[in-house]
Every structure is written in structure tokens, then in C-alpha cells.
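Figure 3 (text version): C-alpha cells given as input.
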């Protein structure tokens, strides 16, 4: 797996519990998601598209939220004006991650998630100082109906690989070819 993909996966596992608790269901259709890892020059912005419907969106939230229920000592969810604020402390793979996420926007058109987290213990993440803060910004925009041939649950990565969260539940591997490391 290319190094940036490994780093992104590690950071997403660290912050996922902060993103999943009690979020509204997104409007069905195709969403463009841009993830920017601020302060990490070795992690370029990642763009993906997700084809959703109510069932696949709920499954993605449940998968993260379900693991959070077992692994999180703290999961505080509140509203501050129109923003959703989520504070969590979770243990995964020998690491404890403390996250603060602020979600602004509309789950029918555009929303932004800003996550600040710190991670203690566990295997090192290249480019991230032990105990140092990480900052991730996720900008999501609804772009219309899913394209022909796309199915609810499809996540289309910028490298051409497509995963389907519903298929992954059944053990079916991703489709497409991953780009070679740069």
C-alpha cells in the first residue's frame, strides 16, 4: 500500500470515533469528500466520492460508532449554535486518541468537519510526533445523483480504486487498481 494511503488510514482510525456519533443521515446521492491533513506536508489532500443512500450512510456511521461504543471511554456530543461538537477519548490498537471535532453545515448540500486529535502510545505514525496534535479538515459537498454504474455504498478513491461498504461487510474486496507509490 502506498505510504500516504497508510498514513491516511492510520489517522482516520484515530479520528473516526469523533466523526460518527449521532450525525444526521446525509442526502442520498454522490458526495465529494476532500480531506486535508493540516501541518503534514507528507500527506497530500485526498479527494474521494461516495455514493450514498440511507442504508449505506447508516452502515458507515454504525461501523465507526459501534466500535466507538466498545473502545471509547468518553463520547460527548453537543450543539453549539448550529455546530455539532464531538469530544472523545478512544483506545484502538494500543493507542489512546483524544479528539475534538466541530461539524458545520448541512447534510443535504455542504458540511465541514474540523478535527483536532492527539494520540498516545501504539505504533508510530510516520510524520506525526508522539503525543503531537494532528489537524484534519473534511469538506463534503453533494454533487448530484450517483453516476451510472455506481451503487449506494461505493467509495471511489482518487487513485481509481472503488470500495463498497456493503460489499466489505460481506468480505468482497475493493475493485480497481491502486496507483503505484510515487
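Below: residues designed for each position.
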Amino acid at each position: 500500500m502506498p505510504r500516504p494511503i497508510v498514513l491516511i488510514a492510520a489517522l482516520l482510525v484515530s479520528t473516526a470515533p469523533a466523526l460518527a456519533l449521532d450525525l444526521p443521515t446525509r442526502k442520498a446521492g454522490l458526495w465529494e469528500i476532500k480531506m486535508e491533513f493540516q501541518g503534514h506536508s507528507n500527506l497530500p489532500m485526498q479527494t474521494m466520492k461516495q455514493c450514498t443512500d440511507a442504508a449505506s450512510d447508516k452502515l458507515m456511521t454504525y461501523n465507526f460508532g459501534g466500535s466507538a461504543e466498545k473502545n471509547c471511554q468518553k463520547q460527548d456530543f453537543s450543539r453549539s449554535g448550529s455546530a455539532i461538537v464531538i469530544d472523545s477519548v478512544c483506545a484502538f490498537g494500543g493507542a489512546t486518541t483524544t479528539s475534538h471535532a466541530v461539524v458545520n453545515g448541512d447534510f443535504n448540500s455542504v458540511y465541514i468537519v474540523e478535527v483536532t486529535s492527539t494520540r498516545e502510545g501504539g505504533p508510530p505514525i510516520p510524520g506525526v510526533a508522539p503525543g503531537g496534535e494532528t489537524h484534519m479538515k473534511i469538506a463534503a459537498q453533494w454533487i448530484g445523483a450517483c453516476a451510472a454504474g455506481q451503487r449506494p455504498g461505493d467509495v471511489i478513491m482518487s487513485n481509481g480504486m472503488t470500495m463498497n461498504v456493503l460489499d466489505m461487510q460481506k468480505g468482497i474486496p475493493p475493485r480497481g487498481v491502486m496507483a503505484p507509490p510515487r
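The two ends are 11 Å apart (CA to CA).
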